[in-house]
Design a protein that fits this description.
Layout lengths: L2 H13 L2 H8 L3 H15 L4 E4 L2 E4 L1 H28 L4 E7 L7 H12 L3 E7 L2 H9 L5 E4 L8 E16 L10 E2 L7 E4 L8 H11 L5 E5 L3 H9 L5 E4 L10 E7 L5 E9 L5 H19 L8
Parallel strand pairs: 3-4, 3-5, 7-11, 8-9
Antiparallel strand pairs: 1-2, 5-12, 6-10, 6-11, 6-12
Helix pairs in contact: 1-2, 1-4, 5-9
Length: 306
């Protein structure tokens, strides 16, 4: 018995009359009578008692009537859920996040997406850059956010925005009152670098900028993430170069001063996802990401187009 059979049976059962049921279904009465007879043959039992004034349900017919509305409701619900999933309105989005990105930009993007697609479940995965690349290939995440992502033939790396770089230092440091800090000002000062991954990242960019500008880099500590780096800064352990997002940490005793450098001006935040991924949820999320990047750029906020 298919959905068409169910609807036709329900119309006859509720109308108790083939003529009225046929009008309700926008069809002629003879084909409807034949369909009901075929349904009865399939069920192996009469469903209606025919009479000049109309029809009455048999016991078998009443049993079927008890089930059909629920089945039709479930079918309608399944169809609606399927349509909503195809439109990216339901489902799950697995997002790879990291360090300073989760302090500012990424939460705001996720909040906007959640407001537009509240039925989509967002699952966050805190992963390093290399872990995000692997998780994408293993389909454990749908999209990741990170910086300085190497070109990958099977992945799309899409710029979101660029953030200016700041120098984090203890408020008692002699440079804390400066409007800007130049690279030469950091010559020989104890620096905290992050992340300490083998893959190219901010730590390598900082080291290269020191080398290109002829400034001595004194590495006090290599740490895994920006939170650890800024926490060490708060303890007077040294200075660190971070993106503007890190300023959201607001740890006591830490100040952030804009960095002036010929080779290290700002840093790109990108999202990465599998090339050719057909997910409607991902497509909708990327629309929100792109719109957010444009609004940040137009709104100023110290960001420049990627």
């Amino acid at each position: 018995m298919d959905l068409k059979d169910m609807r036709q049976f329900l119309a006859v059962a509720e109308e108790r009359n083939f003529t009225r049921a046929a009008e309700r279904l926008h069809m002629a009465q003879p084909p409807l009578s034949r369909q009901i007879k075929a349904l009865e043959d399939e069920m192996g039992a009469p469903l209606f008692l025919r009479a000049p004034a109309g029809v009455e349900l048999t016991e078998a017919g009443q049993t079927l009537l008890d089930e059909v509305p629920n089945l039709l409701h479930l079918a309608q619900r399944a169809a609606e859920r399927t349509r909503r999933a195809a439109q990216g309105l339901t489902g799950q989005l697995d997002v790879g996040i990291y360090g300073s990105g989760v302090l500012d930009v990424i939460p705001r993007v996720l909040a906007k997406f959640h407001a537009q697609r509240p039925e989509v479940r967002i699952a966050l995965h805190n992963l390093t850059k290399s872990e995000q690349l692997q998780a994408l290939r293993e389909r454990r995440i749908s999209v990741g956010f990170n910086r300085l992502i190497p070109p990958e033939p099977d992945l799309v790396v899409e710029s979101v925005l660029r953030e200016p770089l700041l120098v984090a230092m203890h408020e008692a440091h002699p440079l804390a009152q400066r409007r800007q800090v130049g690279m030469a000002d950091l010559d020989g000062l104890p620096m905290i670098l992050y992340p300490n991954e083998a893959i190219h990242g901010l730590a390598q960019e900082v080291a290269e900028a020191f080398r290109q500008e002829g400034v001595r880099l004194a590495v006090e500590q290599d740490v895994e993430d920006v939170v650890t780096a800024v926490a060490l800064v708060a303890s007077g352990f040294g200075l660190t170069i971070a993106t503007r997002s890190a300023a959201s940490l607001r740890l006591p005793g830490v100040v952030f001063v804009p960095l002036r450098s010929r080779h290290l001006k700002d840093l790109e935040l990108s999202c990465l996802y599998r090339r050719g991924d057909p997910s409607p949820v991902l497509a909708m999320f990327l629309e929100v990401v792109r719109a957010h990047g444009k609004s940040e750029t137009k709104g100023g906020n110290g960001l420049r187009p990627a």
